[in-house]
Sequence to fold (176 residues):
Amino acid sequence: MVKDKTKDKLWYVPDYVKTQFAGNLGVLSVGVGYQFFNSLLYTELIYGYVPVAISKSNEIHLISLKNTFPLFRKKIGNYTVSPIAGFTGSLETGNNSFLILPDKYPKGYYVPSAIHFTLFIGTLVHKDFVNSKRIKGIDFYYELGTVETYLWSAITSKEVALKDVFSSAIGINIYF
Fold:
């Protein structure tokens, strides 16, 4: 894996940039990431977007804080493979959700819908670029995850099957 930050690196400079497709963070999401505790925690600030053509109502904009934990690392040739698990907190901004229940809804019937939490598991494959001056390494990852409200619906409702509440994501992290 990419080595921890050097002491002269400013704390706010990210360790990597990321792009993710799907996975409950938007159809496409981009962000910056930081590694902590000897690369045992990856924390990322991400912006996600869903266009009207996919949402079928309004554009969706998400701001998320994603936390990924490599469970262990296995070196295979020039690659490092890690099973991963994690959680994300997301805030949806826009007209599709609300933090405070609007007056038009009956009290106690709906809950605010702008904040969600996701849980995920997956696999991350890392490659270091030893001789590159710009790109120090790259991660490719696949995740399977769910949103807390989907999971709750599957647990409490006979109409929603557990297999129907999961989604996939693929992504890339590029280290500079």
Summary: The radius of gyration is 18 Å.
